[in-house]
Amino acid sequence: MIYVVATLTVKPETRAEFIAAATACIEATRKEPGNIAYDMHESVTDPAKMVFVEQWESAEALVPHRAADHMKAFGRVAANCLTAPPKIEIITPAKVDVR
């Protein structure tokens, strides 16, 4: 299992447009094979920061996701809404022994 954490900073004047495009993308992504969860959050200290937290069965499931039409459509809208490149991290659960 892997997680993707993507932090995007949105221009205030494009916030509604960004959220509308993200909502459509989230709906389609949740139907993709291998997707466990896909959610968008907003910072409580900076309303311009939007954080996507994704959970996938495997890294291989991300390959078709990145090429999906809904991701391309979202990317075209997001490109006009962002103030900086997105920060994307792919993480895995840490193996810890908690007893």
From TrEMBL:
Q: Which residues lie in coiled coils?
A: none
Top-level division of the source organism's lineage = Bacteria
- Name it: Quinol monooxygenase YgiN
Q: Give a GO molecular function annotation for the protein.
A: monooxygenase activity
Q: Which organism is it from?
A: Bradyrhizobium erythrophlei
**Gene3D superfamilies associated with the record:** 3.30.70.100
Domain named ABM: residues: 2-90
Keywords, A to Z, come to: Monooxygenase, Oxidoreductase
